[in-house]
Design a protein that fits this description.
By secondary structure, the protein is α+β, with helices and mostly antiparallel strands. The chain has one domain. It is built from two helices and four strands, in the order αββββα. It has a four-stranded antiparallel sheet. The radius of gyration is 19 Å and the shape is elongated. The termini are far apart.
Length: 132
């Protein structure tokens, strides 16, 4: 009887703790996106020092993989020009469950770098996703 009570208590605790643990895990994995986005930003500046425009291809021009170091995000470049570019990290695999920060990105426009984030519905979630 006592064993059943202990098992029931453990089941209740696990039910309460698991969602919180899962959210903490997803939040911690966002660092993978930050690493990848910062690597792209650095590579873009090295490229631009030698070329008239920012690079438009991660693999061929910047020699970077199309996913983040741990593989939780897929990277994409867009809007590359002489004055800026956009790079996005979209959650994939288990990280795709991070509905709050489904997409994290950086935009460079005329020397101004902006951090952006979108939830799974495309709404701005920059304040929730980027460290302050």
């Amino acid at each position: 009887m006592e064993l059943l009570v202990v098992l029931a208590m453990l089941a209740v605790l696990a039910t309460l703790a698991l969602p919180s643990y899962r959210q903490s895990l997803l939040k911690g994995r966002r660092a993978d996106a930050l690493l990848a986005l910062n690597a792209v930003t650095q590579a873009q500046e090295r490229w631009r020092a030698q070329a008239p425009d920012y690079a438009s291809d991660l693999v061929e021009q910047l020699r970077l993989p199309p996913q983040s170091p741990a593989g939780h995000y897929r990277l994409a470049l867009a809007d590359s020009s002489a004055t800026g570019y956009a790079v996005d990290a979209r959650a994939q695999g288990d990280q795709a469950d991070d509905q709050r920060c489904a997409l994290m990105g950086m935009r460079l426009d005329n020397g101004r770098l902006t951090r952006v984030a979108r939830d799974h519905l495309g709404r701005d979630s920059s304040q929730d996703c980027w460290p302050h």
